[in-house]
Design goal:
By secondary structure, the protein is α/β, with parallel strands linked by helices. Helix content is about 35%, strand content about 25%. Strand 9 (about 210-215) and strand 10 (about 215-220) form a beta hairpin.
Length: about 240
């Protein structure tokens, strides 16, 4: 197993609040790993540091053995890290297709013109939006906006994909489709760090889970073991359940 991503003592303080406190873990190439924890435990902050949207207060992030912590988000993206946001970000007045084309134009390969359009269509079809490619992004349903976000992330041809509650709010049929889509990405060799609260999805997708509570890592184990760990149960349900 080759290490793709390694976090070493990663810490983020916001004033007096330590949102992420000395977190270390590694991701191997091709792995799909869950990053779990109760609300406010620091999961999104970890993703924000990996993708460069927040600067760590302490600690290091290595990608393929190269330090990426401290680099700007666009530099980290060109090194192969793509993400979706917990709150969808897009260019609402542009069509779905043009949103993905924009991601290709500013991505690591800087594709333009007909090449970009053809490739955008592939990613749009991949996430199940082919019949809405010409629709204005701002008029999409929430679920379809999330699909578009993923198409934009895939357009960057990432080695590492960071998903922040991408499956939240899907109905059971959509959830099945979403899970299958993530499995197909793994089969293509993309590594995924998945922040998620949907337990069925975690069980279906993640061989291993890292669990955080109050900024600290409290478990890093095979999914079934992590989910039954007394400290994890306590973190989610409170004392008295463990
Ligand atoms: N930019 C910021 N400035 C100040 N505090 C922040 C900032 N971002 C996050 N926090 C705080 O850091 C802590 C961790 O937040 P974070 O968003 O990482 O949690 P989370 O695990 O993603 O939670 P959720 O499951 O609700 O999305 C919270 O107490 C949050 O209020
Ligand atoms: Mg979050």
């Amino acid at each position: 197993m080759t290490t793709l991503l390694a976090l070493d003592g990663l810490t983020k303080r916001f004033g007096g609040l330590t949102a992420v406190n000395g977190v270390s873990f590694a991701l191997a190439r091709g792995e799909v790993v869950g990053l779990l924890g109760p609300n406010g435990s620091g999961k999104t902050t970890v993703l924000n540091m990996i993708s460069g949207f927040l600067m760590p207060t302490n600690g290091a992030i290595m990608l393929n053995g190269e330090r990426i912590s401290g680099l700007r988000p666009n530099r980290i993206a060109t090194k192969g890290v793509a993400r979706t946001f917990q709150l969808v970000r897009a260019l609402p007045s542009l069509s779905v297709e043009d949103n993905v084309i924009a991601a290709l134009a500013f991505g690591r390969r800087r594709l333009w013109g007909a090449v970009a359009r053809d490739e955008a269509r592939i990613h749009i079809a991949e996430v199940g939006l082919a019949d809405r490619a010409r629709q204005q992004a701002g008029s999409l349903t929430y679920i379809d906006q999330k699909r578009m976000e993923l198409a934009r992330a895939l357009a960057a041809e990432p080695e590492l994909l960071l998903l922040d509650e991408w499956l939240a709010g899907l109905n059971p049929t959509e959830l099945r489709t979403g899970i299958d889509l993530i499995l197909s990405l793994r089969d293509r060799g993309i590594s995924v760090l998945l922040v998620e609260h949907v337990m069925d999805a975690i069980r279906a997708l993640c061989g291993r889970c890292i669990v955080m509570n109050a900024g600290q890592k409290i478990a890093d184990a095979a999914t079934a073991d992590a989910l039954s760990d007394p400290e994890v149960v306590r973190a989610y349900l409170g004392d008295g359940h463990a």
